[in-house]
Specification:
The structure is a homodimer of 365-residue chains. Chain A is built from eleven helices and 17 strands. By secondary structure, chain A is α+β, with helices and mostly antiparallel strands. In chain A, strands 1-2-6-3-7-16-8-15 form an eight-stranded mixed sheet, with helices on both faces. The longest helix of chain A has 17 residues. Chain A is globular and about 75 Å long. β12 of chain A pairs antiparallel with β12 of chain B, so a sheet runs across the interface. Chains A, B: It comes from Nocardioides daeguensis. Chains A, B: Its EC number is 3.5.1.18.
Chain lengths: 365, 365
């Protein structure tokens, strides 16, 4: 079962299709090839109408059903880390490689449903989008919500981020700041005449290393915050005392805090340092009290966990559309060098969604 | 007196010539233009024989004198920092701009002496060389010592590094290491599953910030060591816990320690961390007991101070040639954004050297 690249074969089984998607390298900002392949495959399906915006593809049924659901996934991955192409271990049933978990298994489920569900009980809007793994300004779903909000109108949304094929509700918010220290350049042979900005960052890293995460319980779900340096840079030349050091910090905050509250926390945490906000996205409260969320949760098994990772469910929340995370793959493996997925989870997600989307609505009650 | 670039006018006064040199941008590894200009100007002088190696120019008299001196300076500068072109303040007699202090004032003295001393009392080897401000592997004087050691044979050497037009003896050694911390990548939304290598560098910066410099007294001169981060880098992506952080550290060590002893100190200082040596150059003991050093010191005034900065006097020491630092400019201003020089110092250096090099040797006793 060697991986092939374009064109995609939507008649293949969902695992084969996952491999095809994984083997098309699609690091954020380099989604042209995979988006072209997805668009071509969906355009070939007469029961769908397809729209493209940038490298984001939308395919919709238009059957006049009483309700519409969105099923969405992102096409990009974090940078390659010596983990492509995919490798399938038949003995364990595990598919290895970048994007297997986050989230091309989910994308394959979406494409299989799109190809085969010509008469679903709800109208369906399939969304496969670009640039989820980087700064929010590039996010394809965000851009789509701004340029074509009508395309995202729905009664319920499912985001197929990895959740071990279980339902994960809500999501934590995320923001990034640059924490900057300043000094004064001097020749490093007479360092006492300058002020070393990198040494000045010691206290920034000390505070980060000593950070104690808040773990609030919301709707019975325990969230888990985080505050981490994700980048550091400084230095002018090998013999110059550096006059600037910049620590890029990512804060993940539970959905009981707004973006403004989270930023205030970070500013207080780094009191005495220069803090500049570069990127921010809100969390989403679990919203398990909404009927649409309840119905889906019951249909696929009933268990719900909190979502730690920020996901685009927050974008649906902002649009007033109830949304949950539900997809194959262990979220703990996302972004790790040895990222992998149990193919059984991909198959189960496809089956459960297919059952829910083909079972007449009266039987779902 | 607007600065002009090539060709250089060696008949101009030494201050005008300094400006001409400053206004030819010559950051390390970009010395082609200035070396071309220097070579052309020296080739025009019939009493000198000129040799070029890379962007290093050597010009020699060959008068059969009993003794030979080397007078040397580097042509490169640290990176531009919004401090070009030069600016002359007539009210204060100060010339501002990158390289005014380190060390185009000294280079101008060398070129003026080369142009005008047709009958010096010692044979003279003038050396204007590339790449002093960066890793030793590129250093033009080092390369010349390896490719053409005969060109550096001499009884005494003067290196025109900034020393406030006084004599600075010996020099401190310098070495660079990379101190590396390692961690484990994970998605930053579930940071507790990874290990943050940047947070792991907090202890490295803490030790640096707490460093207490050694100040040994050698031959009556007090040296002053240094240990500084000159660069830091780490980070994979804005949502990934980084698995590596690298701090580049520059250690300046007094000349009573060998390179090996200095490295052992650094390794012990960072015990528990991964330390990799990237660059090293030895210090030079003051050597004030040598007759050639004594004679020159007496001729130019008698005062001697220790040299903190590493300079290529160490390369002459290795070749068995006594050498001192003597040049215009305050070394505390080298590599600073507001680098400048009192033009009176440039003029004094030219005059003192001219007197020494034209006074018959019996009168020097």
């Amino acid at each position: 079962m060697p991986g092939s690249t374009t064109p995609l074969d939507l008649t293949a089984d969902v695992v084969t299709l996952t491999r095809q998607l994984v083997d098309i390298e699609s690091v954020s900002r380099h989604e042209q090839e995979i988006a072209d392949a997805v668009e071509a495959a969906l355009q070939a399906l007469p029961h769908l109408s397809v729209t493209r915006r940038g490298h984001t593809i939308v395919a919709r049924t238009d059957l006049g059903r009483r309700s519409r659901v969105v099923i969405a996934g992102h096409l990009d991955t974090v940078p390659v880390n010596d983990n492509l192409p995919s490798r399938y271990d038949e003995a364990t049933g595990i598919l290895h490689g970048l994007g297997t978990c986050d989230m091309k298994g989910g994308d394959a489920v979406i494409l299989r449903l799109a190809a085969t569900l010509t008469e679903p009980v709800h109208d369906i809007t399939y969304v496969l989008y670009e640039a989820e793994e980087i700064e929010a300004v590039h996010n394809g779903l965000r851009l789509l919500g701004e340029s074509d909000p009508d395309l995202l109108v729905a009664d319920f949304a499912i985001l197929m981020e990895p959740s071990n094929a279980g339902v994960e509700a809500g999501c934590q918010g995320t923001l990034r700041v640059e924490v900057r220290t300043r000094g004064e350049r001097a020749h490093s042979a007479r360092s006492w005449r300058g002020v070393n900005a990198i040494h000045g960052a010691a206290e920034v890293l000390d505070r980060l290393a000593a950070y104690d995460a808040r773990r609030p319980v919301i709707d019975g779900l325990e969230y888990h915050e985080g505050l981490n340096a994700v980048g550091i840079r400084g230095g002018v030349a090998g013999n110059v005392i550096p006059d600037e050091c910049v620590v890029t910090v990512n804060h993940r905050f539970a959905p009981d805090r707004s973006e403004a509250e989270a930023l205030a926390f970070v500013e207080e945490f780094f009191a005495g340092f220069e803090v500049t906000l570069t990127d921010s996205a809100p969390g989403a409260l679990p919203g398990l009290d909404r009927p649409a969320a309840k119905a889906f949760v019951e249909a696929v098994g009933g268990q719900v966990a909190p979502k730690f990772g920020w996901t685009d469910v927050a974008r649906f929340t902002v649009l007033g559309v109830p949304a949950v995370n539900y997809g194959p793959g262990d979220p703990l493996l996302a972004h790790k060098q040895d990222e992998h997925v149990e193919v059984a989870q991909i198959i189960r997600c496809e089956q459960q969604l297919r059952t829910w989307l083909t079972t007449p609505q009266e039987e779902q009650a």
